[in-house]
Amino acid sequence: MNIVFKALNDQTRRSILDMLKEKDMSAGEIADQFEFSRATISHHLELLYHADLVSSVKKGQFIIYSINTTVLNEISKWIVELIDNKNENKK
Amino acid sequence: MNIVFKALNDQTRRSILDMLKEKDMSAGEIADQFEFSRATISHHLELLYHADLVSSVKKGQFIIYSINTTVLNEISKWIVELIDNKNENKK
DNA sequence: TATGTATTTAGACATTTGTCTAAATATAGA
DNA sequence: TCTATATTTAGACAAATGTCTAAATACATA
């Protein structure tokens, strides 16, 4: 869970996820949406990848990234449990 | 959102939330569950407080902390939208 | 094979973060 | 008012983080 929250703790990386939820994109397409260097975006993608928040496939010269929902489901579950359990104990 | 993800990006603070979902606790009770100094736990509580993830009331010498679900609901919504939108676009 | 495009890797650096100890503040109760 | 308890604040420091530039790697195509 640590590595996932670390990956989510950055506005640029969260924006990348917001973009990828719409459609799969290459590293370059993603980088074009930001003012940061390609190396910086590549680094962010690596963090997302290691947190298992995105997956990637090579297509010729391009590397296509897509969002990965498995871990997001786990996080969502943890948060919902915080909310629900709190409400339980309030009754 | 930044400040919330920053607050969630620490195992100790997430554990504090896990404890507070069960029942409200004083700063000292919380600190007793960890090996860290009280000052360190106090610092973590401050971060959670500023992220609006917990609230606190003074009761005599004690300060009682409780979990605050409003912001958690927002985070939950953001994550669910990532998941759902991705699934939409996969169809 | 040579060249251009796409992407990552390496290394550097300033900023942020988590922790500590020591000191300060606030409250309860004798 | 004095003392003990609860908690926070201040200041320091090592480790982690986000960014950059320059260089390396991988692939496509002439």
TrEMBL record, chains A, B:
The organism's taxonomic lineage, starting at the top: Bacteria, Pseudomonadati, Bacteroidota, Bacteroidia, Marinilabiliales
- Give the highest taxon in the source lineage: Bacteria
Q: Which CDD domains match?
A: HTH_ARSR
Q: Where is the signal peptide?
A: none
Domain HTH arsR-type stretches: 1-90
Family annotation (SUPFAM superfamilies): Winged helix' DNA-binding domain
Per UniProt, the keywords (alphabetical) are: DNA-binding, Transcription, Transcription regulation
Q: Which InterPro entries match?
A: ArsR-like_HTH, HTH_ArsR_DNA-bd_dom, HTH_MetalResp_TranReg, SdpR-like_repress, WH-like_DNA-bd_sf, WH_DNA-bd_sf
**Keyword Membrane found:** no
Task: Tell me the protein's name.
Answer: Winged helix-turn-helix transcriptional regulator
